[in-house]
Amino acid sequence: MDQPTAPLLQVNALSRHYGPIKAVDEISFSLKRGEVLGFLGPNGAGKSTTMKMITGNLAPTSGSVTIDGYDILNEPKQAKAALGFLPENPPLYKELTVDEYLNYAARLNRIAKPHISAAVDNCKQRCGLEQMGRRLIANLSKGYQQRVGIAQAIIHSPALVLLDEPTVGLDPIQIREIRQLIRDLGQTHSVILSTHILPEVQATCDRVQIINQGELVFNDSIENLSQRMQTTALLLRFKRPPSTTELLSLTGVQEVESVDENTRRIHFLAEQDPTESLVNTSVSEGWGVYELTPERMSLEEVFVDLTCREPHHAEATQP
Q1: Would you tell me how many other CB atoms lie within 10 Å of the CB of residue 276?
Q2: Are residues 123 and 46 in contact, defined by beta-carbon separation less than 8 angstroms?
Q3: Band of pLDDT at residue 319, cut at 50, 70 and 90
Q4: Rounded to whole angstroms, how far apart are CA atoms 133 and 120?
Q5: Is residue 236 classed as helix, strand or coil in its secondary structure?
Q6: Residue 32 contacts residue 206 (beta carbons within 8 Å)
Q7: Burial class (CB in 10 A: 0-12, 13-18, 19+), 317
Q8: pTM above the 0.90 mark?
Q9: What is the pLDDT of residues 31-58, one digit of tens each?
């Protein structure tokens, strides 16, 4: 029987406290090889603090981070060799050309001198920078500067790439280009994408985690998140509205909300859709339904629902 593959990244009970303030409070998760993880949360939730601890730029108050089998605190050189990082503000030297900067990044990552040229050419090609080598970084658009930042993060072909808010400040076309680049990276690297932009996660990730007030409140696949967003409400307009009691008597109906004199919003269990029963009963009882609109919970509504409640435990177990 095949042994299960060890996760590339293992985060165990990771915490960071600033006096009485718990910026990150005992979060645990793992990341498989080749997986793209969306790390969602409102501003101030603890995303960047977590990223800094994973990369070894900030010591945790407690807990551990293991990358490719190496503990980030006890074996930092080996762990960081498997890691590429794009901070929210890319660490660019804008007085250098793209080629000069990437050559410098290659040397920082201890790429052997005979292999530097090939490594620079490879990351330029992957990031769409082939024609930008001689351009000063200061003269590039924000989108191309982000590409240079991603290029320095992948120049040594790390197993794990962390991207902290990579599309902040970009225009819609640049955002689409960076999202495609992230999807491409997911073919050959494991990626953690930290963001507060909800469509970013849907467009690029396999799995999503939501952090709120330093605690994980959701950890599941994009597919299961989509199921959570399925239709669980109906908006109905009646000529002769029934009573709330009559509507609640229908199988699956959990709550009835009065929108106006003739309009009701019906909340129901996902596995017990009362639509057919509502239509049939409306005909037999003469309620006169003249509008029936299914309502899906948006990703934004799921996000608000999870981040506005008191955090305690993530809703899904570790994959």
Answers
A1: 8
A2: no
A3: very low
A4: 10
A5: strand
A6: no
A7: exposed
A8: no
A9: 998 899 999 888 888 988 999 999 999 9
What SS3 class is residue 171?
A: coil
The sign one gets for the Cα dihedral 21, 14, 205, 146 is: positive
85: left (phi over 0), alpha (psi -120 to 50) or beta: beta
pLDDT digits 0-9 by tens, 247-289:
998 888 888 988 998 999 888 876 778 888 889 999 999 999 9
The answer to whether the beta carbons of residues 46 and 211 sit under 8 Å apart is yes
Element (H, E) at 77: helix 76-81
* Mean pLDDT, range 8-14, rounded to an integer: 95
The residue type at 20: P
User: Which residue segments constitute the domains of the chain, with CATH numbers given?
Assistant: 9-227+304-308 (3.40.50.300), 230-296 (3.30.70.1560)
Q: How far apart are CA 253 and CA 285, in angstroms?
A: 17
The pair of three-digit structure tokens given for residue 189, joined into one six-digit string: 């690297």
Please tell me the distance from the alpha carbon of residue 312 to that of residue 216, in angstroms, as a whole number: 8
Tokens read off for 100:
């000069």
List beta partners, residue 124. none
| Band of residue 1 on the pLDDT scale cut at 50, 70, 90 | very low
Contact 182, 191 (CB under 8 A): yes
* Distance from C-alpha of 190 to C-alpha of 10, rounded to nearest angstrom: 13
* 134-142: average pLDDT: 95
Spell out the residues 6+ positions from residue 106 whose beta carbon is closer than 8 angstroms to its own. 116, 119, 120, 155, 156
What residues does 14 pair with on adjacent strands?
27
DSSP alpha helices (H): ranges in 98-234? 98-108, 113-126, 142-154, 172-185, 198-204, 222-228
